[in-house]
Write a structure and sequence with these properties.
Blueprint (H helix, E strand, L loop, with lengths): L15 H4 L1 H17 L4 H10 L17 H12 L3 H17 L4 H7 L8 E14 L2 E11 L7 E9 L15 E8 L4 E3 L13 E10 L4 E3 H6 L6 H4 L2 H4 L2 H21 L4 H21 L7
Parallel strand pairs: 1-3
Antiparallel strand pairs: 1-2, 2-6, 3-4, 4-7, 5-6
Length: 299
């Protein structure tokens, strides 16, 4: 781990929203420092993991909570009211854990061998290539904009693969090969500091570089599997990825918008602009809540 040893996180089945109050407080206290340094405070990362964000979508088989999208949305927004960058890492960390659950069972067992609070980060743009060898996939590439990479335990990286046990490329691969995800341990990649942004500086979204890393077959799955979702299992893996991917990015923004309206309301007397802004944020929240939990199907 890149942060000090963690206490046990929230046990499976407990409420993430209630647990999120602590990282919300810690994140707010360190927000100015995090923005100045261009990285989250280790205290904020520790609080996120202890609250259960990383384990939120992890299957119960591996000690996770198999949580819902609606609860995650509200918990992320709560953290975002104090620090949008911290909420960003909370949201993407949870979503990347959901994606990793598409690995074969042997791969899941390895990724979560030390517990479900393992922090996974994602290189979701297919910025690398992988070639099948006798020992697995030989992965090579550089993935930009990998948020939270400095605190990561594992990375889930998307690349274009050629060869493989099945031979032909998958349906989403085209002429260049099949798109696949590869789970890689922290020791196998390095970080190039390329992130310097006016806003969201503390996400530390630097470039991850992996050169000729051998990835066993158990630590890889097809991109198409994630896109269509599973036919069985908890709701968080049955839903197609495109139906919920946007929620990962909208939650932190919702929290920032709520904080802005609240601060504006405290600072000035009631004005039509403030009322209108508050109504628009409320409307956005209602739309996001509906998207996160349509008729209770994705809880």
């Amino acid at each position: 781990m890149s942060v000090e040893t963690l206490p046990a996180g929230s046990p499976p089945g407990t409420g993430l929203l209630e647990a999120a109050a602590d990282p919300a407080r810690v994140a707010a206290a360190h927000a100015v420092r995090a923005d100045a340094e261009g990285r989250l405070a280790p205290e904020s990362v520790k609080a996120l993991l202890a609250a259960g964000f990383a384990r939120h979508f992890v299957p119960r088989r591996w000690g996770g909570a198999e949580g819902g999208f609606g609860e995650l949305l509200e918990a992320v927004a709560l953290v975002g009211e104090g620090c949008t960058s911290t909420a960003w890492i909370a949201s993407l960390g949870a979503q990347t854990g959901r994606m990793a659950s598409f690995l074969p069972p042997e791969g899941c067992a390895e990724v979560w061998s030390e517990g479900p609070d393992t922090l996974l980060v994602g290189g979701l743009v297919p910025s690398g290539t992988a070639t099948w060898t006798d020992g697995g996939w030989l992965l090579d590439g550089a993935w930009p904009y990998v948020s939270g990479v400095e605190f990561s335990d594992w990375a889930l990286l998307c690349g274009r693969a050629s060869g493989g046990p099945g031979g032909a490329a998958g349906p989403d691969g085209g002429a260049g090969g099949e798109l696949r995800f590869f789970a890689v341990r922290r020791q196998a990649y390095r970080i190039e500091e390329t992130w310097e942004s006016v806003g969201m500086r503390a996400t530390g979204s630097h470039t991850l570089v992996a050169r000729d890393v051998l990835v066993p077959a158990r630590l890889s799955f097809a991109h198409a599997d994630l896109m269509r979702g599973r036919e069985s299992g908890p709701a968080c893996v049955r839903v197609p990825h495109k139906a919920v991917n946007g929620l990962a990015f909208a939650g932190p923004v919702l929290g920032a918008a709520r904080a802005l309206v609240g601060g504006w309301t405290d600072w000035t007397a009631p004005r039509p602009e403030v009322v209108r802004a508050g109504a628009e944020v409320d409307a956005a929240q209602l739309l996001l809540e509906r998207a996160a939990d349509p008729n209770g199907r994705w809880t």
